């Protein structure tokens, strides 16, 4: 059970909740803060004070005063009118992440909601009732208004949810779990949708997938090194120590670990003096992508524990401030940066694929074909990889440099962070397919050289991967192989191969 307190949620804990379906609960200390904050909101309403979003309208309507009799209806109207999302829904795991992050943010105790609102979010996570949230429609400032409205209305029994493998009306799933729908009260609708939880949720899922892929890229590159009889000297510790980047040194160390004991790698001068950059510069390029990942991780863990709605309530309600913590610029930049880091893992992978299949660049069978000429082998797999990395170059264009004013120019600068996060996730998916292609080609090349000469750890990895995709003994529909390999990569952690497996029965 992960205990939420609004202050210390980590990506590792999020992984347990999202991918392993671990339950969540609220800390008593955090709930005490929530109660105090709620009492402040109720006092504001009773005293008829003018406070944005509690006794006024929203956005350009902030100068419209709301009668105390209508403050609850104001919140319901807010959710229904702002539920303007379009397009395909976010993956179910992303909407689960939204619930988790929204509950954690409200537990900070600056938002003024009743504890029951947070309890409902927690119940939905624990019973696996996941809102159907359209992906498109957020500007990434003033919060992820449209996506989070689709989330919020499911608490009210409106809209749709994913439940037990199907898409059903929210009221049906709530009834099945004995959860009464909520009627929102003062400030609660605004507190639920004024935040960055859609872009951050998408960012969390994307980061966790990208981190796994970055580790996998090193193991796959190691098998490519064996297939191409790459020069191991380029991974020598001294080379990377004198440059000084920790991530570069760590990447080189892990690749050396993968290739320890290999009889297929060579020393400089044995076959060639230098390898091409796509082999020789693996630590430098992959290491730089790890620098990106570390930056993104830091920003996500801050945002996961941030109070990002508006207004925020301090000092028992004596201090209520309208600010701009809902602005998604930090996450927009982080997601745009992540796009670059992951796209480069795919770019260099595609160049290694070319070296594996191009007979002008190696002494392997042309295109790794079992019968060159009669059978095309991996020829068009490289085409597919080239197409994917080209598409990534378009997706990598920064979303955060764009801004379109909204709400009659009251909200005149926005982050587009949710677009950045969505595109980052697409790039991760494309990169995974590219690395799946490299894995298929690298295994074929390494087997041609001799499985008995491989390093113990790469041989162990190849043995398991061969349970997913067979050796190329004749032409077949390779898209099926790519799909199976990519699916395996998405669900498989390579670190156990590197850390604990030292031998394999071939």
UniProtKB/TrEMBL annotation:
GO cellular component, one term: cytoplasm
5-imidazolinone (Ala-Gly) crosslink location in chain: 141-143
UniProt xrefs under Gene3D superfamilies: Fumarase/aspartase (Central domain), Fumarase/aspartase (N-terminal domain)
Residues found modified as 2,3-didehydroalanine (Ser): 142
Key words of the record: Cytoplasm, Histidine metabolism, Lyase
Subcellular location: Cytoplasm
Pathway(s) it belongs to: Amino-acid degradation; L-histidine degradation into L-glutamate; N-formimidoyl-L-glutamate from L-histidine: step 1/3
Gene Ontology annotations of biological process type: L-histidine catabolic process to glutamate and formamide; L-histidine catabolic process to glutamate and formate
GO MF term list: histidine ammonia-lyase activity
SUPFAM superfamilies (alphabetical): L-aspartase-like
Enzyme class, first EC level, given as a word: lyase
Post-translational modification as stated in the protein's UniProt record: Contains an active site 4-methylidene-imidazol-5-one (MIO), which is formed autocatalytically by cyclization and dehydration of residues Ala-Ser-Gly.
EC numbers, comma separated: 4.3.1.3
Catalysis: reaction(s): L-histidine = trans-urocanate + NH4(+)
Family indicated by similarity: Belongs to the PAL/histidase family.
Alphabetical list of PANTHER family matching this protein: HISTIDINE AMMONIA-LYASE
Protein name (Swiss-Prot/TrEMBL): Histidine ammonia-lyase
Organism name: Peribacillus deserti
Organismal lineage: Bacteria, Bacillati, Bacillota, Bacilli, Bacillales
Encoding gene (name): hutH
């Amino acid at each position: 059970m992960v205990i939420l307190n609004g202050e210390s949620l980590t990506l590792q804990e999020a992984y347990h909740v999202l991918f392993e379906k671990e339950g969540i609960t609220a800390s008593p200390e955090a709930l005490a803060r929530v109660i105090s904050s709620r009492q402040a909101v109720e006092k504001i309403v009773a005293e008829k004070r003018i406070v944005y979003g509690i006794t006024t309208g929203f956005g350009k309507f902030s100068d419209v005063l709301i009668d105390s009799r209508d403050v609850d209806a104001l919140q319901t109207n807010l959710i229904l009118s702002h539920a303007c999302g379009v397009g395909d829904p976010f993956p179910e795991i992303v909407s689960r992440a939204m619930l988790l992050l929204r509950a954690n943010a409200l537990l900070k105790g600056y938002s003024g909601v009743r504890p029951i609102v947070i309890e409902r979010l927690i119940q939905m996570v624990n019973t696996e009732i996941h809102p159907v949230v359209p992906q498109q429609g957020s500007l990434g400032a003033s919060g992820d208004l449209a996506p989070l409205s689709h989330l919020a209305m499911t608490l009210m029994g409106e809209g749709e949810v994913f439940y037990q493998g199907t898409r059903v009306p929210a009221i049906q799933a709530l009834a099945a779990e004995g959860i009464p729908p909520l009627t929102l009260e003062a400030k609660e609708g605004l507190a639920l949708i004024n935040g960055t939880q859609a872009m951050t949720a998408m960012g969390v899922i994307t980061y966790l997938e990208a981190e796994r892929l970055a580790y996998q890229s090193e193991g796959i590159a190691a098998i490519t090194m064996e297939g191409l009889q790459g020069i191991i000297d380029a991974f020598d510790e001294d080379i990377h120590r004198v440059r000084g980047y920790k991530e570069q040194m760590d990447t080189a160390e892990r690749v050396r670990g993968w290739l320890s004991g290999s009889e297929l790698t060579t020393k400089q001068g044995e076959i060639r003096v230098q390898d091409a950059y796509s082999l020789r510069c693996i630590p430098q390029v992959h290491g730089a992508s790890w620098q990106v990942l570390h930056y993104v991780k830091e920003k996500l863990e801050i945002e996961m524990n941030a109070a990002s709605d508006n207004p925020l309530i301090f000092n028992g309600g004596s201090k209520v401030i309208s600010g701009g913590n809902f602005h998604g610029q930090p996450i927009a930049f982080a997601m745009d940066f992540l796009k670059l880091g992951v796209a480069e893992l795919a770019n260099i992978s595609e160049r290694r694929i070319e070296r594996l299949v191009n007979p002008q660049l190696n002494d392997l069978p042309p295109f790794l074909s079992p019968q060159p000429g009669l059978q095309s082998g991996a020829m068009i797999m490289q085409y597919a990889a080239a197409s994917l990395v080209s598409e990534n170059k378009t997706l990598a264009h920064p979303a955060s440099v764009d801004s379109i004013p909204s709400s009659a120019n009251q909200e005149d600068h926005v982050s587009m962070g949710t677009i950045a996060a969505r595109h980052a996730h697409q790039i991760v998916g494309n990169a995974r397919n590219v690395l799946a292609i490299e894995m298929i080609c690298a295994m074929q090349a390494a087997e041609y050289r001799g499985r008995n000469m491989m390093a113990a750890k790469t041989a162990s990895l190849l043995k398991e991967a061969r349970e997913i995709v067979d050796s190329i003994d004749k032409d077949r529909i390779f898209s099926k192989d790519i799909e199976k390999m990519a699916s395996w990569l998405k669900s498989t952690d390579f670190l156990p191969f590197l850390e604990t497996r030292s031998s394999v029965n071939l």
